Amino acid sequence: MIQGHGKRPYAVIQLRQDDKQAKLYNMVGFQTNLKYGEQKRVFRKIPGLERVDFVKYGVMHRNTYINSSELLEATYRMKQQPNLYFAGQITGVEGYVESISSGLVAALNAIRDFKGQDRIIFSEYTIMGALAKYISTPNTKFQPMNANFGILPELEGKKIRDKKERYAQLAKRSLENL
Fold first, then answer.
1. pLDDT tens-digit series, residues 46-85
2. Do residue 52 and residue 22 come from a single domain?
3. Where among 61, 89, 106 does a domain terminate?
4. Left, alpha or beta for 157 (phi > 0: left; psi -120 to 50: alpha)?
5. What CATH number corresponds to the domain at position 149?
6. What is the DSSP string of 76-119?
7. Which of 27, 52, 106, 112 could be disulfide-bonded to 76 (CB atoms 3.0-4.6 Å)?
8. Crossing angle, helix 127-136 and helix 96-114, to 10 degrees?
9. How many CB atoms lie within 10 A of CB 145?
């Protein structure tokens, strides 16, 4: 509920501070094909934004990614070019933490390759391993993926209906498999 309003909101706008002086804010997640004039008109209808100075308007962007499910191993190494690793959103992982995860896995394995050591493939029971497995498993409808509990294998045995408990059990299993 919004304070003093008493109604459930239809949408929430996240403003992110974009300067040290707290004078410049970014509306997070507002990708649009609206022309700038129309954005100004529509955004001014949002309570609290009637009189703000818009310094930049939104545009649509498209993330570019390779068909990792055909090209990469779970180490983020190219199947056909074994001395080349990829990491980040170009691999089809979606998000900052996911990009860091792919970079860590790729870097660890590139170093191990350089030293003549066996590569590391993280268990599919960990988010890092499940994400690496997702991007490296052949899939004709490959799309980028965030880290989430849905990419982990299901828990063995009885289904746990309570989401908080189920996620706790999945996290516990992940730590055991790390």
1. 888 899 888 888 887 778 999 999 999 999 999 999 999 9
2. yes
3. 61
4. left
5. 3.50.50.60
6. SBBSS-TT-B--SGGGTB-SHHHHHHHHHHHHHHHHHHHTTPPP
7. 106
8. 80
9. 18
How far apart CA 122 and CA 131 sit, in angstroms, is 10
Residue range 127-147: average pLDDT? 95
* pLDDT score at 169: 94
**Contacts of 45 by beta carbon, 8 Å cutoff, 6+ apart:** none
User: Which residue type does 101 have?
Assistant: S
Question: Considering Cα of 129, then 132, then 137, then 142, what sign does the dihedral take?
Answer: positive
> Six-digit token pair at 136?
């490296």
Residue 70, number of CB atoms within 10 A of its CB: 14
Q: What is the pLDDT of residue 1?
A: 45
